[in-house]
Amino acid sequence: MDTLNIxxxxxxxxxxxxxxxxxxxxxICPYLGVSGRIDMAFGMGLAVTFVVTLSGTLTWxxxxxxxxxxxxxxxxxxxxxLVIAGAVQLVEMYVRKFFPTLYESFGIxxxxxTTNCAILGLCLFINLWGIDNLLEAVVLSFGxxxxxxxxxxxxxxxxxxxxxxxxxxxxxGAPITLITAGILALAFMGFAGMISSS
Amino acid sequence: xxxxxxSRTELYGQTFIAGLWRENPVFRLLLGMCPTLAxxxxxxxxxxxxxxxxxxxxCSNIIVSLMRNLLKPHLRILMFALxxxxxxxxxDLFLKAFQPRMSEVLGPYVPLIIVNCIIICRxxxxxxxxxxxxxxxxxxxxxxxxxxxLCVLAGIRELLSTGxxxxxxxxxxxxxxxxxxxxxxxxxxxxxLLLALVNALTKRQKT
Lengths: 198, 207
Fold this sequence. Notes:
- By secondary structure, chain A is mostly helical.
- Chain A has one domain.
- Helices cover 76% and strands 0% of the residues of chain A.
- The longest helix of chain A has 33 residues, at 38-70.
- The radius of gyration of chain A is 18 Å and the shape is globular.
- Chain B has a two-stranded antiparallel ribbon with strand order 1-2.
- In chain B, strand 1 (164-165) and strand 2 (168-169) form a beta hairpin.
- In chain B, helix 1 packs parallel to helix 7, helix 3 packs across helix 4 (76-98) and helix 6 runs antiparallel to helix 7 (132-162).
- The chains are: A mainly alpha, B mainly alpha.
- The A-B interface holds A 22-29, 32, 74-78, 81-82, 85, 114-117, 119-121, 124-125, 128, 168-172, 174-179, 181-183, 185-186, 189 and B 30-31, 33-34, 37-38, 77-78, 81-82, 85-86, 88-89, 92-93, 107-108, 111-112, 114-117, 120, 180, 183-189, 191-193, 195-197, 199-200, 203.
């Protein structure tokens, strides 16, 4: 019961309160780049969720079983980036072979994910927060992906409507997107303090 | 002979200036947004971050430029990532040893330099095609452009959120600090307005 409680709290906190995009500024590049249309944004969100869950789990396992056991923590960053790049490559091959339609809809997003800061950022945060339970690490990484998907879909919805609005010339494109993101972050600040821990 | 050396100097100058303004990584290419937004609550961490990025960018550009003839196309991104993460580890350990307080403030954003798009972009677009010297100049120009941008953004945010820069009181006593400027909201909106300003300025230049 207690574990379930912790897992649930962790999940809600990473989706809403500590949302990677609005409070940690992770994954801003794809957030600005592919939030133009809602279906593309959703595809990106799904791809990120998939890879982040996989690599969050893998890096936790490698960190705890291999690096900490052999006192090789210096190479942590090198290992993490290798795991992420490998996971992306693996997912790409697997999806292309077994789900060709899904692969078509992911398109160029899959290779782009390697350099998405949200993935490496989450792996580092799991390490920083000292999560020492595999289940918790899995739930947190999945929640981070869901949080990213939610943020990018909200943004895409707003931007589709912004296309019809009369925006001053110099604010068009990235500036108005950033200002909208700022207002969204303000809204998400309202959730802060809902859960006091972590 | 004199002519060609002159044109070469001009090329170096052009490469250097490009990073500062014409191809400024943040304002023009919209690269490396994460650290730009995350570490600019005050000038000091922004400056530290800028120095780390210059160091990593310079070293990785040198290495990539030296091994550009050995790179296999399908493995090159992986090679870039490995080179970059090695230098980031060095920078991170250095900060932890000599600037422990700064290292705590910056937290995971130092290792996140690995996935900073600026560095991979420069490795791909410049260092893997050009000679060593051009790559070095490009790295310094881009790094300085990035650092300057960070400092401008951090300066505005620190001034408005605390009324001082580097512990130096600038605003009059009657000034009420805007707490929101040090939070994520301030980061997003300040950067948005700065980008709009840059857009407006370049448009006036053209017409």
